[in-house]
Amino acid sequence: MAQRKLPKVVIIGRPNVGKSTLFNRLVGKRLALVDDQPGVTRDRRMGEAGLRGLEFEAVDTAGWENEDDASLPGRMRAQTQVSLKDADAALFVYDSRAGLTPLDEEIAQWLREQQVPVVLIANKAEGNAGQSGILEGYALGLGDPVPISAEHGEGVADIYNALSPHIADRQPTTANLADPTEEEAEHDETRPLQLAIVGRPNAGKSTLINRLLGEDRMLTGPEAGITRDSIAIDWRWTHPGDGDERTIKLIDTAGMRKRAKVTDKLEKLSVADGLRAVDYAEVVVLLLDATRGLEVQDLKIANAVIEEGRALMIAINKWDVAENASALFNGVRMALDEGLAQLKGVPLFAVSAMTGKGLDPMLAAAFDLRAAWSRRVPTAALNRWFDDALAANPPPAPGGKRIKLRYITQVGTRPPRFVVFGTRLSDLPKSYERYLLNGIRRELGFGAVPVRLNLKSPKNPYQS
Protein backbone atom coordinates (compact mmCIF):
# COMPACT_ATOMS: atom_id res chain seq x y z
CA MET A 1 0.00 0.00 0.00
CA ALA A 2 1.70 3.23 -1.15
CA GLN A 3 2.37 5.91 1.44
CA ARG A 4 1.22 9.44 0.64
CA LYS A 5 4.17 11.85 0.53
CA LEU A 6 2.84 15.37 0.24
CA PRO A 7 4.80 18.62 -0.03
CA LYS A 8 4.83 20.51 3.26
CA VAL A 9 3.48 24.08 3.50
CA VAL A 10 3.90 25.92 6.81
CA ILE A 11 1.58 28.76 7.87
CA ILE A 12 3.45 31.48 9.79
CA GLY A 13 2.49 34.82 11.32
CA ARG A 14 2.06 36.77 14.54
CA PRO A 15 -0.81 35.89 16.93
CA ASN A 16 -4.44 36.43 15.90
CA VAL A 17 -3.95 37.11 12.20
CA GLY A 18 -6.11 34.11 11.21
CA LYS A 19 -3.56 31.32 10.68
CA SER A 20 -5.73 28.59 12.22
CA THR A 21 -8.80 29.83 10.35
CA LEU A 22 -6.84 29.58 7.09
CA PHE A 23 -5.55 26.14 8.10
CA ASN A 24 -9.09 24.89 8.73
CA ARG A 25 -10.21 26.38 5.41
CA LEU A 26 -7.40 24.60 3.51
CA VAL A 27 -7.92 21.19 5.11
CA GLY A 28 -11.70 21.48 4.85
CA LYS A 29 -12.30 20.67 8.52
CA ARG A 30 -12.28 22.44 11.86
CA LEU A 31 -9.14 20.67 13.01
CA ALA A 32 -7.48 23.63 14.73
CA LEU A 33 -9.04 25.47 17.65
CA VAL A 34 -10.07 29.03 16.75
CA ASP A 35 -10.92 31.83 19.17
CA ASP A 36 -10.81 35.63 19.28
CA GLN A 37 -8.08 35.71 21.90
CA PRO A 38 -4.47 35.53 20.66
CA GLY A 39 -2.15 32.60 21.30
CA VAL A 40 -4.70 29.79 20.98
CA THR A 41 -2.37 27.61 18.89
CA ARG A 42 0.74 26.47 20.76
CA ASP A 43 1.92 23.30 19.02
CA ARG A 44 2.22 22.52 15.34
CA ARG A 45 -0.84 20.88 13.82
CA MET A 46 -0.79 19.14 10.44
CA GLY A 47 -3.50 18.17 7.99
CA GLU A 48 -3.91 17.15 4.35
CA ALA A 49 -4.99 20.16 2.32
CA GLY A 50 -6.03 20.82 -1.25
CA LEU A 51 -6.48 23.75 -3.61
CA ARG A 52 -7.99 23.05 -7.04
CA GLY A 53 -6.29 19.65 -7.20
CA LEU A 54 -3.01 20.85 -5.65
CA GLU A 55 -2.36 18.58 -2.67
CA PHE A 56 -0.08 19.38 0.25
CA GLU A 57 0.37 18.96 3.99
CA ALA A 58 -0.59 22.19 5.74
CA VAL A 59 1.10 22.99 9.06
CA ASP A 60 -0.52 25.40 11.50
CA THR A 61 1.97 27.03 13.87
CA ALA A 62 1.92 29.09 17.05
CA GLY A 63 1.78 32.87 16.76
CA TRP A 64 5.24 34.43 16.52
CA GLU A 65 5.94 36.64 19.53
CA ASN A 66 9.03 38.68 20.42
CA GLU A 67 9.60 37.30 23.92
CA ASP A 68 12.49 35.78 25.87
CA ASP A 69 13.52 32.35 24.54
CA ALA A 70 12.86 30.68 27.93
CA SER A 71 9.31 32.03 28.22
CA LEU A 72 6.26 30.14 26.95
CA PRO A 73 5.84 32.50 23.94
CA GLY A 74 9.57 32.18 23.27
CA ARG A 75 9.38 28.39 23.27
CA MET A 76 6.35 28.59 20.97
CA ARG A 77 8.38 30.75 18.54
CA ALA A 78 11.18 28.16 18.58
CA GLN A 79 8.64 25.47 17.60
CA THR A 80 7.57 27.61 14.66
CA GLN A 81 11.16 28.12 13.53
CA VAL A 82 11.87 24.38 13.66
CA SER A 83 8.77 23.64 11.56
CA LEU A 84 10.28 25.50 8.57
CA LYS A 85 13.39 23.30 8.37
CA ASP A 86 11.95 20.67 6.03
CA ALA A 87 9.16 22.79 4.49
CA ASP A 88 8.62 23.13 0.75
CA ALA A 89 6.93 26.53 1.06
CA ALA A 90 5.59 28.96 3.66
CA LEU A 91 2.42 31.03 3.81
CA PHE A 92 3.19 34.23 5.74
CA VAL A 93 -0.13 35.63 7.01
CA TYR A 94 -0.64 39.20 8.20
CA ASP A 95 -3.74 41.22 9.12
CA SER A 96 -4.47 43.63 6.27
CA ARG A 97 -6.99 45.55 8.40
CA ALA A 98 -4.47 46.23 11.16
CA GLY A 99 -1.71 46.91 8.65
CA LEU A 100 1.93 45.95 9.10
CA THR A 101 3.40 45.90 12.60
CA PRO A 102 7.06 45.82 13.70
CA LEU A 103 6.55 42.13 14.54
CA ASP A 104 5.37 41.45 10.96
CA GLU A 105 8.54 43.13 9.69
CA GLU A 106 10.68 41.04 12.07
CA ILE A 107 9.08 37.82 10.81
CA ALA A 108 9.53 38.92 7.18
CA GLN A 109 13.21 39.64 7.78
CA TRP A 110 13.69 36.17 9.28
CA LEU A 111 11.84 34.54 6.37
CA ARG A 112 14.00 36.35 3.81
CA GLU A 113 17.05 34.71 5.42
CA GLN A 114 15.59 31.20 5.00
CA GLN A 115 15.87 28.95 1.95
CA VAL A 116 12.11 28.40 1.67
CA PRO A 117 9.78 30.02 -0.90
CA VAL A 118 7.28 32.38 0.78
CA VAL A 119 3.75 33.33 -0.31
CA LEU A 120 2.55 36.54 1.38
CA ILE A 121 -1.10 36.35 2.54
CA ALA A 122 -3.04 39.54 3.36
CA ASN A 123 -5.87 38.14 5.48
CA LYS A 124 -9.10 39.83 6.65
CA ALA A 125 -9.27 41.65 3.31
CA GLU A 126 -13.05 41.35 2.81
CA GLY A 127 -14.59 44.59 1.53
CA ASN A 128 -12.36 47.67 1.26
CA ALA A 129 -11.21 47.87 4.88
CA GLY A 130 -7.94 46.06 4.18
CA GLN A 131 -6.95 47.94 1.03
CA SER A 132 -4.25 50.10 2.61
CA GLY A 133 -2.84 47.10 4.47
CA ILE A 134 -2.63 45.13 1.24
CA LEU A 135 -0.52 47.90 -0.31
CA GLU A 136 1.73 48.00 2.75
CA GLY A 137 2.55 44.33 2.18
CA TYR A 138 4.65 45.12 -0.88
CA ALA A 139 7.22 46.76 1.42
CA LEU A 140 8.10 43.40 2.99
CA GLY A 141 10.02 42.30 -0.10
CA LEU A 142 8.24 38.93 -0.30
CA GLY A 143 6.39 39.44 -3.57
CA ASP A 144 2.79 40.41 -4.25
CA PRO A 145 0.37 39.99 -1.32
CA VAL A 146 -2.54 37.62 -1.95
CA PRO A 147 -5.66 39.28 -0.45
CA ILE A 148 -8.04 36.79 1.17
CA SER A 149 -10.66 36.38 3.87
CA ALA A 150 -9.97 33.02 5.49
CA GLU A 151 -13.12 33.32 7.59
CA HIS A 152 -15.43 33.85 4.60
CA GLY A 153 -13.42 31.88 2.03
CA GLU A 154 -12.88 34.87 -0.25
CA GLY A 155 -9.69 34.78 -2.33
CA VAL A 156 -8.48 31.46 -0.89
CA ALA A 157 -8.49 29.92 -4.38
CA ASP A 158 -6.06 32.66 -5.47
CA ILE A 159 -3.43 31.14 -3.19
CA TYR A 160 -3.24 28.35 -5.78
CA ASN A 161 -1.61 30.58 -8.39
CA ALA A 162 1.06 31.80 -5.97
CA LEU A 163 1.74 28.43 -4.33
CA SER A 164 1.58 26.13 -7.34
CA PRO A 165 5.00 27.06 -8.86
CA HIS A 166 6.71 25.99 -5.64
CA ILE A 167 5.05 22.59 -5.02
CA ALA A 168 3.31 21.46 -8.23
CA ASP A 169 6.29 19.28 -9.20
CA ARG A 170 6.25 17.59 -5.78
CA GLN A 171 2.77 16.11 -5.95
CA PRO A 172 2.48 12.44 -4.84
CA THR A 173 2.63 10.00 -7.75
CA THR A 174 0.93 7.17 -5.82
CA ALA A 175 -1.60 7.48 -3.07
CA ASN A 176 -4.07 5.43 -1.14
CA LEU A 177 -6.99 7.85 -1.25
CA ALA A 178 -9.60 5.60 0.36
CA ASP A 179 -9.71 4.78 4.06
CA PRO A 180 -9.45 1.03 4.71
CA THR A 181 -12.68 -0.85 5.30
CA GLU A 182 -13.17 -2.49 8.70
CA GLU A 183 -12.35 -5.89 7.18
CA GLU A 184 -9.14 -4.55 5.60
CA ALA A 185 -8.15 -2.75 8.81
CA GLU A 186 -8.59 -5.79 11.04
CA HIS A 187 -6.26 -7.89 8.88
CA ASP A 188 -3.64 -5.24 8.02
CA GLU A 189 -1.12 -5.31 10.86
CA THR A 190 1.25 -2.99 8.96
CA ARG A 191 -1.07 0.03 9.16
CA PRO A 192 -0.14 2.77 11.66
CA LEU A 193 -1.28 2.25 15.23
CA GLN A 194 -3.52 5.18 16.18
CA LEU A 195 -2.31 5.81 19.76
CA ALA A 196 -3.79 8.67 21.80
CA ILE A 197 -2.26 9.94 25.04
CA VAL A 198 -4.84 11.38 27.47
CA GLY A 199 -4.89 12.46 31.10
CA ARG A 200 -5.15 15.32 33.53
CA PRO A 201 -3.09 18.51 33.04
CA ASN A 202 0.64 18.20 33.83
CA ALA A 203 0.64 14.39 33.80
CA GLY A 204 3.52 14.60 31.29
CA LYS A 205 1.75 13.71 28.03
CA SER A 206 3.79 16.04 25.78
CA THR A 207 7.03 15.14 27.59
CA LEU A 208 6.25 11.46 26.98
CA ILE A 209 5.77 12.03 23.25
CA ASN A 210 8.99 14.04 23.04
CA ARG A 211 10.86 11.17 24.72
CA LEU A 212 9.43 8.66 22.24
CA LEU A 213 10.31 10.86 19.26
CA GLY A 214 13.75 11.75 20.59
CA GLU A 215 13.19 15.45 19.94
CA ASP A 216 11.41 18.46 21.45
CA ARG A 217 8.49 18.16 19.06
CA MET A 218 5.81 19.09 21.58
CA LEU A 219 5.86 22.27 23.63
CA THR A 220 6.42 21.45 27.32
CA GLY A 221 7.05 23.32 30.54
CA PRO A 222 5.96 23.77 34.16
CA GLU A 223 2.85 25.70 33.13
CA ALA A 224 -0.31 23.57 33.30
CA GLY A 225 -2.45 23.33 30.18
CA ILE A 226 0.19 24.15 27.57
CA THR A 227 -1.29 21.72 25.04
CA ARG A 228 -4.62 22.95 23.66
CA ASP A 229 -5.05 21.20 20.30
CA SER A 230 -4.92 17.46 19.74
CA ILE A 231 -1.73 16.97 17.72
CA ALA A 232 -1.10 13.84 15.61
CA ILE A 233 2.45 12.84 14.66
CA ASP A 234 3.53 9.92 12.46
CA TRP A 235 6.49 8.01 13.89
CA ARG A 236 8.36 4.75 13.34
CA TRP A 237 9.23 2.61 16.36
CA THR A 238 11.57 -0.40 16.43
CA HIS A 239 10.12 -3.34 18.35
CA PRO A 240 12.80 -4.51 20.83
CA GLY A 241 11.63 -8.12 20.55
CA ASP A 242 11.85 -8.75 16.80
CA GLY A 243 13.70 -5.64 15.60
CA ASP A 244 10.95 -4.80 13.11
CA GLU A 245 9.85 -1.23 12.54
CA ARG A 246 6.23 -0.38 13.31
CA THR A 247 4.42 2.81 12.34
CA ILE A 248 2.59 4.72 15.06
CA LYS A 249 0.45 7.84 14.82
CA LEU A 250 0.95 9.49 18.21
CA ILE A 251 -1.88 11.78 19.30
CA ASP A 252 -1.20 14.28 22.08
CA THR A 253 -4.25 15.84 23.74
CA ALA A 254 -5.07 18.68 26.10
CA GLY A 255 -5.25 17.93 29.82
CA MET A 256 -8.74 17.04 31.02
CA ARG A 257 -9.76 18.58 34.36
CA LYS A 258 -12.98 18.04 36.29
CA ARG A 259 -15.90 19.48 34.35
CA ALA A 260 -16.83 21.81 37.24
CA LYS A 261 -13.39 23.41 37.07
CA VAL A 262 -13.49 23.98 33.31
CA THR A 263 -15.06 27.41 32.98
CA ASP A 264 -12.83 29.02 30.34
CA LYS A 265 -14.35 28.74 26.86
CA LEU A 266 -11.01 27.89 25.26
CA GLU A 267 -10.36 25.10 27.76
CA LYS A 268 -13.81 23.67 27.03
CA LEU A 269 -12.90 23.63 23.33
CA SER A 270 -9.58 21.94 24.14
CA VAL A 271 -11.20 19.20 26.23
CA ALA A 272 -13.83 18.58 23.54
CA ASP A 273 -11.01 18.37 20.97
CA GLY A 274 -9.28 15.76 23.14
CA LEU A 275 -12.43 13.68 23.39
CA ARG A 276 -12.76 13.79 19.58
CA ALA A 277 -9.17 12.53 19.36
CA VAL A 278 -10.24 9.49 21.39
CA ASP A 279 -12.90 8.81 18.75
CA TYR A 280 -10.20 8.47 16.09
CA ALA A 281 -7.79 6.41 18.23
CA GLU A 282 -7.47 2.63 18.33
CA VAL A 283 -5.58 2.39 21.62
CA VAL A 284 -5.69 5.07 24.32
CA VAL A 285 -3.02 5.50 26.99
CA LEU A 286 -4.35 7.18 30.13
CA LEU A 287 -1.34 8.80 31.76
CA LEU A 288 -1.34 9.14 35.55
CA ASP A 289 0.97 11.29 37.67
CA ALA A 290 2.89 9.09 40.15
CA THR A 291 3.15 12.03 42.55
CA ARG A 292 -0.65 12.26 42.71
CA GLY A 293 -1.81 8.68 42.21
CA LEU A 294 -5.22 7.70 40.83
CA GLU A 295 -7.95 10.31 41.19
CA VAL A 296 -11.68 10.30 40.48
CA GLN A 297 -11.09 12.36 37.32
CA ASP A 298 -8.79 9.62 35.98
CA LEU A 299 -11.56 7.05 36.39
CA LYS A 300 -13.99 9.36 34.58
CA ILE A 301 -11.58 9.69 31.66
CA ALA A 302 -11.05 5.91 31.60
CA ASN A 303 -14.80 5.27 31.60
CA ALA A 304 -15.25 7.73 28.71
CA VAL A 305 -12.62 5.82 26.69
CA ILE A 306 -14.28 2.47 27.40
CA GLU A 307 -17.74 3.83 26.59
CA GLU A 308 -16.34 4.99 23.25
CA GLY A 309 -15.23 1.39 22.61
CA ARG A 310 -11.50 2.11 22.48
CA ALA A 311 -8.81 -0.22 23.81
CA LEU A 312 -7.45 1.28 27.05
CA MET A 313 -4.17 1.02 28.89
CA ILE A 314 -2.97 2.92 31.97
CA ALA A 315 0.57 4.27 32.46
CA ILE A 316 1.81 5.72 35.75
CA ASN A 317 4.28 8.43 34.71
CA LYS A 318 7.07 10.11 36.74
CA TRP A 319 8.02 6.69 38.12
CA ASP A 320 11.58 7.97 38.59
CA VAL A 321 10.34 10.22 41.43
CA ALA A 322 7.61 7.94 42.83
CA GLU A 323 7.61 7.25 46.58
CA ASN A 324 6.70 3.78 47.91
CA ALA A 325 6.57 2.59 44.31
CA SER A 326 5.43 -0.98 44.96
CA ALA A 327 2.57 0.10 47.23
CA LEU A 328 1.58 2.79 44.72
CA PHE A 329 1.42 0.31 41.82
CA ASN A 330 -0.60 -2.25 43.79
CA GLY A 331 -2.93 0.45 45.10
CA VAL A 332 -3.62 1.78 41.60
CA ARG A 333 -4.19 -1.78 40.33
CA MET A 334 -6.79 -2.46 43.04
CA ALA A 335 -8.49 0.91 42.55
CA LEU A 336 -8.74 0.35 38.79
CA ASP A 337 -10.29 -3.10 39.18
CA GLU A 338 -12.82 -1.62 41.58
CA GLY A 339 -13.50 1.61 39.69
CA LEU A 340 -13.65 -0.01 36.24
CA ALA A 341 -15.79 -2.99 37.22
CA GLN A 342 -17.10 -3.36 33.65
CA LEU A 343 -13.57 -4.03 32.33
CA LYS A 344 -11.22 -5.64 34.82
CA GLY A 345 -7.55 -6.22 34.10
CA VAL A 346 -6.82 -3.09 32.06
CA PRO A 347 -3.05 -3.18 31.31
CA LEU A 348 -1.07 -1.07 33.79
CA PHE A 349 2.51 0.14 33.29
CA ALA A 350 5.03 2.11 35.31
CA VAL A 351 6.87 4.56 33.02
CA SER A 352 9.05 7.64 33.10
CA ALA A 353 8.88 10.18 30.30
CA MET A 354 12.10 11.72 31.63
CA THR A 355 14.24 8.54 31.59
CA GLY A 356 12.36 6.39 29.05
CA LYS A 357 11.69 3.60 31.57
CA GLY A 358 8.92 1.19 30.58
CA LEU A 359 8.05 2.85 27.27
CA ASP A 360 9.03 -0.02 24.95
CA PRO A 361 7.00 -2.65 26.88
CA MET A 362 4.05 -0.25 26.89
CA LEU A 363 4.21 0.21 23.11
CA ALA A 364 4.60 -3.52 22.48
CA ALA A 365 1.52 -4.14 24.61
CA ALA A 366 -0.38 -1.46 22.68
CA PHE A 367 0.07 -3.43 19.44
CA ASP A 368 -1.08 -6.63 21.18
CA LEU A 369 -4.09 -4.75 22.54
CA ARG A 370 -5.01 -3.49 19.07
CA ALA A 371 -4.76 -7.05 17.71
CA ALA A 372 -7.25 -8.23 20.36
CA TRP A 373 -9.48 -5.20 19.68
CA SER A 374 -9.50 -6.14 15.96
CA ARG A 375 -9.92 -9.90 16.49
CA ARG A 376 -12.63 -11.85 14.68
CA VAL A 377 -13.50 -15.29 16.09
CA PRO A 378 -14.06 -18.12 13.58
CA THR A 379 -17.74 -19.09 13.51
CA ALA A 380 -17.12 -22.70 14.51
CA ALA A 381 -15.02 -21.71 17.53
CA LEU A 382 -17.58 -19.11 18.57
CA ASN A 383 -20.45 -21.59 18.46
CA ARG A 384 -18.45 -24.24 20.37
CA TRP A 385 -17.74 -21.72 23.11
CA PHE A 386 -21.41 -20.64 23.19
CA ASP A 387 -22.68 -24.21 23.52
CA ASP A 388 -20.18 -24.93 26.30
CA ALA A 389 -21.10 -21.72 28.14
CA LEU A 390 -24.82 -22.58 28.05
CA ALA A 391 -24.15 -26.14 29.19
CA ALA A 392 -21.95 -25.01 32.08
CA ASN A 393 -24.43 -22.37 33.23
CA PRO A 394 -27.90 -22.62 31.60
CA PRO A 395 -30.02 -19.45 31.40
CA PRO A 396 -32.50 -19.07 34.29
CA ALA A 397 -36.23 -19.81 33.95
CA PRO A 398 -38.06 -16.95 35.68
CA GLY A 399 -41.64 -17.92 36.54
CA GLY A 400 -40.92 -21.43 35.30
CA LYS A 401 -40.61 -20.25 31.68
CA ARG A 402 -37.37 -21.05 29.91
CA ILE A 403 -35.27 -18.36 28.25
CA LYS A 404 -33.98 -19.85 25.00
CA LEU A 405 -30.60 -18.63 23.68
CA ARG A 406 -30.38 -20.05 20.16
CA TYR A 407 -27.06 -18.86 18.70
CA ILE A 408 -24.45 -16.11 18.72
CA THR A 409 -22.71 -14.26 15.89
CA GLN A 410 -19.94 -11.68 15.70
CA VAL A 411 -21.18 -8.67 13.75
CA GLY A 412 -18.11 -6.45 13.92
CA THR A 413 -14.70 -5.61 15.30
CA ARG A 414 -12.87 -2.53 16.59
CA PRO A 415 -14.45 -2.91 19.16
CA PRO A 416 -15.63 -6.56 18.98
CA ARG A 417 -19.43 -6.73 18.71
CA PHE A 418 -21.62 -9.80 19.20
CA VAL A 419 -25.35 -10.51 18.93
CA VAL A 420 -27.14 -13.32 20.78
CA PHE A 421 -30.42 -14.48 19.27
CA GLY A 422 -33.13 -16.08 21.35
CA THR A 423 -36.59 -15.71 22.90
CA ARG A 424 -37.83 -14.00 26.06
CA LEU A 425 -34.55 -12.08 26.16
CA SER A 426 -36.13 -9.16 28.02
CA ASP A 427 -36.24 -11.47 31.06
CA LEU A 428 -32.54 -12.37 30.86
CA PRO A 429 -30.81 -11.00 33.99
CA LYS A 430 -27.94 -8.54 33.60
CA SER A 431 -25.80 -10.93 35.61
CA TYR A 432 -26.14 -13.55 32.86
CA GLU A 433 -25.16 -11.01 30.21
CA ARG A 434 -22.04 -10.27 32.28
CA TYR A 435 -21.36 -14.01 32.48
CA LEU A 436 -21.39 -14.23 28.67
CA LEU A 437 -19.29 -11.07 28.26
CA ASN A 438 -16.67 -12.25 30.75
CA GLY A 439 -16.52 -15.62 29.00
CA ILE A 440 -16.01 -13.98 25.61
CA ARG A 441 -13.13 -11.86 26.96
CA ARG A 442 -11.52 -14.65 28.96
CA GLU A 443 -11.87 -17.62 26.62
CA LEU A 444 -11.92 -16.12 23.11
CA GLY A 445 -8.74 -14.05 23.29
CA PHE A 446 -10.09 -10.53 23.83
CA GLY A 447 -8.59 -9.88 27.24
CA ALA A 448 -9.12 -6.36 28.58
CA VAL A 449 -10.73 -4.74 25.53
CA PRO A 450 -14.31 -3.44 25.51
CA VAL A 451 -16.72 -5.97 24.01
CA ARG A 452 -20.28 -5.16 22.97
CA LEU A 453 -23.05 -7.76 23.41
CA ASN A 454 -26.59 -7.20 22.11
CA LEU A 455 -29.63 -9.43 22.50
CA LYS A 456 -32.09 -9.93 19.65
CA SER A 457 -35.40 -11.76 19.54
CA PRO A 458 -37.07 -13.08 16.38
CA LYS A 459 -39.54 -10.74 14.68
CA ASN A 460 -42.33 -13.34 14.89
CA PRO A 461 -43.89 -12.84 18.38
CA TYR A 462 -45.37 -16.36 18.30
CA GLN A 463 -41.99 -18.05 17.75
CA SER A 464 -40.66 -19.65 20.93
Q: Which topology of the largest domain does CATH recognise?
A: Rossmann fold
Strand arrangement across the biggest beta sheet: 2-3-1-4-5-6
Number of helix segments? 13
Task: Please write the CATH class name of the largest domain.
Answer: Alpha Beta
Indicate the low-confidence ranges by residue numbers: 30-42, 174-179, 218-229, 260-271
Domain EngA-type G: 7-171, 193-374
Binding site for GTP 2: 199-206, 252-256, 317-320
GO molecular function: GTP binding
Pfam families: KH_dom-like, MMR_HSR1
General description of the model:
One of its GO terms (biological process) is ribosome biogenesis. This is GTPase Der. InterPro entries: G_ENGA, GTP-bd, GTPase_Der, KH_dom-like, KH_dom-like_a/b, P-loop_NTPase, Small_GTP-bd. Keywords: GTP-binding, Nucleotide-binding, Repeat, Ribosome biogenesis. The chain contains 13 helices and 15 strands. The protein has three domains: 8-170, P-loop containing nucleotide triphosphate hydrolases (Rossmann fold, 3-Layer(aba) Sandwich), CATH 3.40.50; 182-373, P-loop containing nucleotide triphosphate hydrolases (Rossmann fold); 379-456, K homology (KH) domain (GMP Synthetase, Chain A, domain 3, 2-Layer Sandwich). 36% of the residues are buried. By secondary structure, it is an alpha/beta fold. Strands 2-3-1-4-5-6 form a six-stranded mixed sheet, sandwiched between helices. The chain has a six-stranded mixed sheet with strand order 8-9-7-10-11-12, with helices on both faces. The model is unreliable at 30-42, 174-179, 218-229 and 260-271 (pLDDT under 50). The radius of gyration is 26 Å and the shape is elongated.
